[in-house]
Amino acid sequence: MATMINGEAYLGRVLMRPLSPNGDVRLYLWPLRCLKSKMGGPTFGVDIRGEEIIRFDAHGPRGHWHQGGYDKLGPGGSHQDFPEGIADTASQLTWSLAHLREHGQKLLAEAGHPAAAASIDPAMLDAALTDLMAHLDREGDLRPQAIAQGVLMP
User: Fold this and answer.
1) In 62-113, which ranges are continuous DSSP H helix?
2) Which among 78, 77, 69 is positioned nearest to 108, based on CA atoms?
3) For a Cys staple, 34 with which of 38, 90, 93, 151, CB 3.0–4.6 Å?
């Protein structure tokens, strides 16, 4: 799972789900990640044996995603903007889930992990993505709590 960054705030319970039978490829979710800039939203990604490869930051107007190996390339080297018109958290989540479902194996292979990419079980991926959305629903809107704590701007 991605490393929590000192000075950021993380609200809600973390979700982890395996994407491969041996558990080497995993999906993680932070329901609300609040950046030092006091912007934020859900963050989820895929790691291989603890190395973060793909990350989706559905943070609304400042949302983006990372490919090519987040841990290897760093935030700047892996940064990707969402397609034009994908500007709010809900549409970023929808796009991200579909993109991971359709291109996840290719993205992992292109990042230098072809064996791990091939080990992804499509049924496990579908179940993990369903669990991700259900988990966000169960956690509810954490923004008021984050605003009250001063870690997110209204």
Assistant:
1) 70-78, 89-110
2) 69
3) 151
What is the C-alpha separation between 67 and 55, in angstroms, rounded?
7
pTM of the shown model: 0.95
pLDDT value of residue 146 = 97
* C-alpha distance from residue 112 to each of 5, 73, 116, 120 (Å): 25, 12, 9, 15
Q: Are strands 64-66 and 79-80 parallel, antiparallel or unpaired?
A: antiparallel
Query: In sequence order, which ranges of the chain are alpha helices (DSSP H)?
Result: 70-78, 89-110, 114-119, 122-139, 143-149
Q: 70, 45 in Cβ contact below 8 A? A: yes
